[in-house]
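User: Can you recover a sequence for this backbone? Please restate the input before giving your answer.

Assistant: Of course. Working from this structure:
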């Protein structure tokens, strides 16, 4: 029996994240990533869970994960109020950059941001826009 394309995409992303960060996602994060992929591709997760007779929409999504370098040492050296003010300014600026490149902020996680390109609307240059956004 052939694997579900969503699970295959999750495995591929899991391998990419593990290779780039040195640590694989935990089970809960992997399940959340699968749900995000299905939601981004317009799949009704509830009806899709009923069985293989339901179709799956396959789409390519580029995910950008970015965080602040040296954030842990910054938090140790500064008062909490200053850190929160800096964090809000940085994440606000990141959000503006993402918006300019037509990305979709999926979530903020502490000092990091998760951005989708290609969902809910795909563009032929999603990968290039993600790279340009990351560089900026």
């Amino acid at each position: 029996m052939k694997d579900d394309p969503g699970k295959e995409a999750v495995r591929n992303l899991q391998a990419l994240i593990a290779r780039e960060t040195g640590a694989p996602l935990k089970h809960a994060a992997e399940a959340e990533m699968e749900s995000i992929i299905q939601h981004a591709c317009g799949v009704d997760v509830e009806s899709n869970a009923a069985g293989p007779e339901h179709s799956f929409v396959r789409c390519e999504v580029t995910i950008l994960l970015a965080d602040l370098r040296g954030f842990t040492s910054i938090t140790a050296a500064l008062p909490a109020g200053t850190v929160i003010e800096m964090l809000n300014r940085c994440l606000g600026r990141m959000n503006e950059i993402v918006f300019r490149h037509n990305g979709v902020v999926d979530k903020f996680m502490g000092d990091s941001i998760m951005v989708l390109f290609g969902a809910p609307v795909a563009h032929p240059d999603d990968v290039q826009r993600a790279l340009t956004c990351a560089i900026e």
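That completes the design. The helical segments are 5-21, 27-40, 45-48, 71-77, 80-100, 126-135.
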